[in-house]
Amino acid sequence: ALYHAKKRQRGGAVLFDSDHEYQISFEAKIESALKQADLKNELSVVFQPIIDIHDQWTIGFEALARWESPQLGKISPACFIPIAERAGIVGSLTKPLLEKALAAASHWRTPLRLSFNLSAHDLNSSDSVLMLIGIIQRSGFDPTRLDLEITETAFAHDFEQVTQSVETLRRMGCGISLDDFGTGYSSLTRLHALPLTKFKIDRSFVKDLHLRPSSYKIVKSLLALSADMGLDCVIEGVETEEELAALIALGGTSVQGYLFAPPLLEHEAAKFAAEASGA
Ligand code: C2E
Ligand code: CA
Ligand code: CA
Ligand code: CA
């Protein structure tokens, strides 16, 4: 009570209070719209190319969720995915998203890879893993061409169960990518315990790395670590030629970012792949 009284005496603090309330009601609005949504129709998937740094051919695409709500308009996944996670309903989004991504990828005329993002909730029970396996099998898409992207925070919740789920998917042939590599707090011992096939270096380290010695050193050591572990590494968020040149000099192998292409609609992605896959 004292804390509140104090806050109300100051203009800025009152603003903070109402900001906070605004934030809560906004989140509640999104949550209820998601719960009522016709997810099969309102959700769609776009595809961002992942590029070989040397020949600049397309290796595959990362599927990224898009939501257009009739009431709220277009909402970014950076906004609605965390809300769906907190509300415990992200699994109901994963199903239509993975189905759509696999259906689109099945039409690609060259054997490109598909990356798909998973949340902790997709991996914290054997039921949800069975759902994922069922969707992959029904799609007919070769699981050895599928990379499932998981962040370090997904392992923070229930390391044992999530590791077990990931192992099951790995045995099925799926690749396992550690997303946003470098932003979490995993110990190396922990990373070694996971059946990882790939790292994805977060774009926060890539921005102006040629001008920022601390970013440069981080990317350099993450690349060295992935090479030591014998894993591929995708560098995200490459926006400029200068960043690309620095990454080539550091021995990077694959890149993703606006310099090459933004996330593309399904038909644009198919066209991009036909022109830039060397096939
Ligand atoms: P992420 O997995 O790290 O995806 C990369 C994000 O960076 C995407 O944002 C992409 O559009 C953006 N990006 C790519 N290249 C550039 C660049 O050169 N510059 C900048 N500034 N940004 C770039 P997006 O599509 O808004 O997705 C945001 C996040 O939402 C994703 O981050 C991922 O964590 C989550 N997400 C997206 N789709 C799904 C999904 O289907 N399932 C789950 N669980 N999460 C998803
Ligand atoms: Ca990702
Ligand atoms: Ca990422
Ligand atoms: Ca991210």
From TrEMBL:
Limits of the EAL domain: 27-277
Highest taxon of source: Bacteria
Protein name: Diguanylate cyclase (GGDEF)-like protein
Taxonomic lineage: Bacteria, Pseudomonadati, Pseudomonadota, Alphaproteobacteria, Hyphomicrobiales
